[in-house]
Design goal:
The complex is a heterodimer of chains A (54) and B (402).
Chain A: H1 2-15, H2 17-39
Helix pairs in contact in A: 1-2
Chain B: H1 2-39, H2 45-49, H3 52-58, E1 63-68, H4 70-73, H5 81-84, E2 93-98, H6 104-114, E3 122-126, H7 130-133, H8 139-144, H9 148-156, H10 162-172, H11 183-193, H12 197-231, H13 247-260, H14 274-277, H15 279-282, H16 291-299, H17 303-317, E4 320-324, H18 330-335, H19 340-355, E5 361-362, H20 383-397
Parallel strand pairs in B: 1-2, 1-3, 3-4, 4-5
Helix pairs in contact in B: 1-3, 1-12, 6-9, 6-17, 9-11, 9-12, 10-11, 10-17, 11-12, 13-20, 16-19
The chains are: A mainly alpha (54), B mainly alpha (402).
Amino acid sequence: MWIKRLTNFFTATYTNPTGRVVLLTLYYLAIIVGLIIMYGRGNFTTPKFVYQGF
Amino acid sequence: MKQRTQLNAAIISFAILIMALIGFDMYARSLEQRYVNALAPLDLTQTINGIALQRAALYQSDLLPVYGSSEITMINTQYDAEKFFATYPTGFTVFQVANLGAASLTMAQDLTALGPDLRGKKIVISFSPATFTMSKLPPEYYAGNFSPLHAYEMIFSPYLSSALKMDAAKRMLDFPTTLQNDSFLDFAVTQMTRTSKVNRILYYLSWPLGELQIMTMRLQDHAEVVSYLWSHPSDPNVKKIPQTIDWSGAFSTALAEQKQYTLSNPLGVEDSDWWYYQHVVTNPIPAGSEDKSFINRVEAHPEWTDFDILLRVLQESGAEPLILSRPMNVHLWEALGVSEQAQDVYYVKLNDSVNQFRMPLVDYQQYGTDIYFSIDQGAHTSRYGWIYVDQTLDEFFHGNLH
């Protein structure tokens, strides 16, 4: 039931020009956020070495 | 119409993303500024390999950034500056950026990353004579202290002269393993070392991408710090207990303690390290027999090139540094066949290098005959030696260094 309601909501919003821009914006942002979460983490570790002197 | 809708959505998404990143950057900076005093004694990886916390430390009036190497981190003692000044007894503590095996080139890259934030700021550059008098910098030490963020900042810095960046790039190419996994950085470093017009053009063409990479890594650096603070809740209000330091009391306590760690030998070497030197007692080395090779090694040591790069970075960035060396253990080196006269070569060269830049230098040469200042041939600071260093840091911070 809620799936149908959701589908109707998106269909109605998508037919409206402003709504379409809003939905697309959210869609693009979701992709960007997903990419940042998956690949955005920096690597600040360094290779280990045995210190022997100076 | 459909394409225009997509374009509008893409532009809005991009604008929101930019605003979100700017907002995050501001939030992270304010958080770092608030917590940097609490994070100072923790010696986090991000403190050494990042830049966000170092920058925050520069803007705290009660933190003195100290860049250094093993002479700082080798022994764990209550007398090292981090612990000695932990309660801000005279109004400050140190913010250590130090790691085993870190040498001048690593420090130069690190300081370049701070850019104009360094202008007019007091910082301390600490090192031991061993960097210039013993074996040349092993590639694995450099790699173990290599930060891609700092390397990018060095190569693409808009604040340093091209000549300086070129000299740094040439040295960076001497450690190819640090560049082999980053072909873009390798490309930019290579272009920087060449002088033809084509290479200049290629370098400048790579510049926007380099800046983009730096921006990304700076945000990642902020994210690491913020993530740490979120997962390790801490009190930003550190305990500060003003008190007058009893220096003579500290000297005698530390000396008595240091003597307990050197009971096995007459040369002041830490008991745990004496096994490596005890041959000089059982099979004495003729006096001065190693002078020639020592002098040749010191005179031609590649570390001087890196040290010059470091001093130029400090000068061009407008920092107010204190150059802080350590004394060689005269008697131990003599036992190893290097006369005191030959040892002087290090101090002469060091003073010549630093004096060109008119920077304050403390080399403690007058304490070379005090066997308890350091724990080994590498001049790693002893418990007792730390009190001298602490006193110098205190004087430098308060502007009383003569």
